[in-house]
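Input chain follows. Return structure tokens only.
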Amino acid sequence: MNNKLKSGEIVTSVTIILSALGLTYAPLPGLQQTLVIVSGTELQEPLQKLQEKFEQANPNIKLELKFQGSQEIVNNYIDEKNDFKPTILIPANGEILTELSNRLKAINNTEPFYDSPQPIAKTMLVGVAWPERGQVLFPNGRFQWQRIEQAMTANSWEKIGGAKDWGSFDFVTTDPTRSNSGQLTLNLWTQSKVGTNVNSASLNDPSVRSLFSLIKKSVYQPPRSTDTLLQEFISKGPNDADVSIVYESIALYRWQQSKINQTKSYQIYYIDPSIETTATAVIPRRDVNTATANAGGKFLDFLIQPQQQAILVEYGFRPVNNAVDIKAVPNSPWNQNIPGAEFKPNITTLQPSNSQINTEIQRLWERAN
């Protein structure tokens, strides 16, 4: 009798222990949290890969990924145009978040974020061109804004030394009212035009207003985001998309795709000076409780660990964690002999323009005709 009782007690004890272990490793419905992450499209594919890895390690946290142009992230959040409540915002650079913070503080005069913005990954603006066209446009092998403007003005490859059957010159950039890369492109082009840092005075220069009008007339229906632009650039190929400005990260990552879709892959050109931009994340206070914010912080800590930074390198980003060597990462695009790609390009890199300049660039673009 006693032996039977003891056996029963042991079985019951083991059941309780196993149940407890089950509770440890299986998510409880009442404790399940969902983080809605809104990011620029340049991070879409690496974040989708990291999502699976994070959810496996954190079964009680589910990630819901949304992707928009970086300027759209700000505008949609301010105007509450989303049909979801963002937990984490990750635009292409920290200046975008400064703009968001300033606009939110002007509305309710409270601190809009839980913590300081967290840098996630770095990249810079580069030019891409199909090889034969690049050789004609940049005969010395170096990117030149002036040559693109000349080609736009001529509107014909034949008039600038290209083949007659190449037809019109087609430059592609993103919409600066929706995408940060479009804003940075116009910033660098303006700087090249006036020979000085961009400010309110330089943006009011008649030559700059004429330049914006020329670009706007030449660029038909600019895409809302940079990755969308490059995918369209690749699918259209020469004669419909000849030269573009994109982030180095997606230029490196999409290069293999261009090699498959077209007879020749595109060439990367480093712009001098260029703008280094850092994808930066923040947890907003609006509609985000403390528990959800803590879960969001766990995800941001996850992103900057060496293993995740290495995955971002595979997608063409430069790490913010200095412990990661981009040449040592397996499948690093800097080890794939991509035409024009450089581990340490000999160029000057500038910080992104501030929110005031970005706003003025958007206004000038909207007024251009």
